[in-house]
Amino acid sequence: MILCGHRGVASLAPENTLAGLRKAAELGLSWVEIDVQLTKDQKVVVIHDEKVNRCSDGKGKLRKYDWDELRKLDAGSWFDPAFEQERIPRLKDYLGLARELGIRVNIELKVYDKDDAGRLCRRLSKLIDKHGFDKGSLLFSSFDPDCLRYLQVLQPEVPRGLLVEHIPDDWQQQLEQLECAALHCNYRYLTREQAELVKAAGYRLHCYTANNPDKVRDFPAWGVDMLFTDKPQDYLDAGWPAG
User: Fold this and answer.
1) pLDDT tens for residues 55-104?
2) Which member of 36, 69, 162, 194 has the lowest number of beta carbons within 10 Å of its beta carbon?
3) What's the CA gap between 133 and 75, in Å, rounded?
4) pTM
5) Which of 48, 131, 166, 184 is catalytic?
6) Annotation says 206 is catalytic
């Protein structure tokens, strides 16, 4: 089972920053998960929330900021003064550093307005092609099926994962229609029976966001392929392989 650093390594560095990516490399992780959205001027940037308030010294919705404004925000001091120089990164810079460090990236597409799905997917697709990022080192995921439908056409070579909270009854139908490689679910609600069904159907099973190794000690035996965690260091200290 692979350990994937959630939003970088969110317990050791500000989430979704280059500092978090470097922490993942220091721990020997092979995967990280990040979130992307569009700025006012259509730049793909790495941030989770609809608003910039929680993870920077800015205020208001991300979509009201253009890149020149966003890049000036302090995205580290909220976590620890030692990270005062951290900024909200552009995706192209994040993927560039990930390539240097040899880390694969699960890109979660965040859509807070349905009209953004197509724009975000088109900009993301162009960015990947323009900069020649290795499609074998990427994984797309989203709670929004529209994003996965767009990427099914725009970037068919990059595997996709459908994000759900609870696994729905029609999970297999959805995965087939979207041609997904993986199902991503909340670890709290996964049962062994569900895990066995997903694996028997030939899909990868990824679970978020488990920060206590004791609560998921049976997951490797269940066939879970990837575990997203803010605290990969706790797993490594407990003797789990990085994957």
Assistant:
1) 999 999 999 999 999 999 999 999 999 999 999 999 999 999 999 999 99
2) 69
3) 25
4) 0.98
5) 48
6) no
